[in-house]
Design the sequence.
């Protein structure tokens, strides 16, 4: 009989096997991604279906509505998103581009909200999805205003390239973060996806450290970073002040 801790780790392995763009996983793929034997992954999946955390879709399973409902109760995500949405709407209206809100978790950014724009490029980002922090504008904006140990976590995880333009050297990343601290704006120049650029700015807590970041993204051929950067910076600063004044 596995220990409670061992069983919990297996449950987490099954749940985290799902990616943001998955509509459902079969038993073999679920086992491969979770690193569990097929029979174990299948048994845990059935238990999670019964609990409402997963739901059946023919021979496949997918994340269930109850799991989504639980996720919406996470305080940091809920407070940040609720406060940010009006500013994100204004940004989208002003720029006619896609607007992102993200937070940092480990070496990756997690997208809390995305307001898409008609005619915009297909983004590698999705709500609830993750990308390596060092290849994104929001990730670099957050890292520039984070403690050194947080940045080191990202470096230690490996600066893997998403495109040929991604920053992959610790020294180059350090210099870029220094520039971002001075200017308050980070850029993604086709580093997370070919043909996609973005300008991002950190959302700061009362201690001056980043709790998230806003960005505006669009086609490299249709969006001038210098034109949208001031709007992103202003929105992030105003959101930071709003959160600082809001009851905790």
Sequence:
């Amino acid at each position: 009989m596995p220990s409670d801790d061992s069983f919990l780790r297996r449950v987490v392995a099954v749940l985290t096997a799902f990616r943001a763009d998955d509509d459902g996983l079969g038993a073999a793929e679920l086992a491969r991604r979770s690193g569990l034997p097929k029979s174990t992954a299948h048994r845990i999946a059935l238990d999670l279906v019964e609990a409402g955390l997963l739901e059946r879709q023919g021979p496949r399973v997918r994340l269930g509505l109850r799991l989504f409902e639980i996720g919406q109760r996470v305080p940091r995500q809920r407070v940040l998103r609720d406060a940010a949405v009006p500013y994100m709407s204004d940004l989208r209206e002003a720029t006619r581009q896609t607007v992102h809100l993200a937070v940092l978790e480990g070496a990756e950014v997690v997208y809390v909200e995305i307001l898409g724009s008609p005619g915009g490029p297909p983004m590698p980002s999705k709500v609830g999805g993750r990308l390596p922090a060092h290849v994104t504008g929001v990730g670099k904006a957050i890292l520039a205003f984070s403690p050194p140990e947080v940045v080191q976590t990202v470096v230690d995880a490996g600066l893997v390239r998403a495109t040929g333009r991604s920053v992959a050297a610790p020294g180059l990343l350090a210099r870029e973060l220094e520039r971002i601290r001075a200017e308050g704006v980070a850029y993604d120049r086709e580093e997370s996806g070919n043909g996609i650029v973005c300008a991002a700015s950190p959302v700061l807590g009362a201690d001056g450290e980043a709790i998230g970041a806003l960005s505006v993204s669009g086609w490299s051929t249709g969006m001038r970073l210098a034109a949208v950067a001031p709007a992103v910076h202003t929105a992030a600063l105003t959101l930071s002040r709003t959160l600082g004044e809001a009851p905790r």
